[in-house]
Amino acid sequence: MEKIMTCDKNTQHIQKMFDEISKYYDKMYNIISFGFHYLIKFLSIRKLNLKPRSMILDLCCGTGDFTQIISKYCPRTRVIGLDISEGMLKLAKAKNPAGVFMKGDCVNLPFENSEFDYVTMGFGLRNIEDRKKALSEIYRVLDNGGKFLQLDFGRHNFISRVFDFIVPLFAKIMDTNENHYKYLINSKNEFPEPDDLIREFEDAGFKYVTKCDYLFGVISMQIMEKRF
Question: How far is it, in rounded angstroms, from Cα 54 to Cα 92?
């Protein structure tokens, strides 16, 4: 039975919401990941075995963690961060003064075909209304043999449900808009589990490379490859 979507993922709504939550976004993820989110992002990026002089596109770059990790540990690569939220991009630029960032929409990427060797996306695919179109765009801008890394919430297990209680507590402490934390919970619970996501990626033309689960499967990373 098909799930009924309860999250408003209209582009304008997502942009406005992330502009509003940008000021406490990093604190939020520190709390709901028990402080491990940056380490998880680093471990995920390391799985890509990035090659020198590679072109990398970091989609839904948010406050720039992936960009920072790539620039720090793989300095001989070139990474472009793209996000739809100006508030998030402002923080990303503050974290990465020498970084290249631009505002854009994942379903209509402003790049040529086969322009990138790698595309990364951390905690972003869950917020895109038309995943099929976004995956098509990612496939288009990747070069043959290029890799796509996706990191987000994973299995809907007992530990995952604990977050449904943690997030509202955080929201009260931070005095945030309750609709924002309700969106986070609903989008997490409605997001496909890793194996279902991999099938979506394969339907879009990608070939499975590997996956890795973190925090007992609450967070999951998948790496896919573009092959003609």
Answer: 21
Separate counts of helices (H) and strands (E) for the chain: 9, 7
- CA atoms within 13 Å, Cβ hemisphere of 126: 24
* pTM of model > 0.85: yes
Helix axis angle, 65-73 relative to 86-95, nearest 10°? 30
Q: Give percent of the chain above pLDDT 90.
A: 71
What spatial distance separates the first Cα and last Cα of the chain, rounded to whole Å?
33
- Give 53's contacts (C-beta < 8 A, 6+ positions apart): 76, 77, 78
Kindly state the tokens that stand for 89: 């991009």
Phi first, then psi: give them for residue 227, nearest 5 degrees.
-135, 130
